[in-house]
Amino acid sequence: MEKSERLKKFNDYIADKLSYILATMTTFYVISLLVILPLLYSQPTSFVAWASYMCSVIFQGIALPVLGYTARKASDKSDKIINHMNDTTDKVESIIEKMETQQEQILYLINLLEKKDEHISDDIDKIIEISKKSNDIDNIIEKNEI
To answer: Which of 1, 28, 34, 80 would bridge with 65, disulfide CB 3.0–4.6 Å?
Structure first.
């Protein structure tokens, strides 16, 4: 394994772990506590100082872990939806395969019935011929008896 590839894997590992840790609600509570505790000892004195404190500490320190947490939750939901869609797709494909097999069987049976029908038609024609001959014979016999 190449050195740069190992470094990339290490960086990816650290980034994954840090992003997971920093996107937890525990991190949110810890940072919130660290942001609020200093206010007990020293508060900003002007509007500009409060606005600066709110923007830099509250929004960046507290909001980012919450945003990471909600993004992770959304990702988990998306994964569940994708897995469900994949399962559904597999089921639909299985149903389609079964239907195609059944359709082939039905076509085979229809073909067999058509062949049987041809044979039956031929047999019926033969029976009709024999019946006509029999009628002819009966007619001849009747004529001879008279």
So the answer is: 28
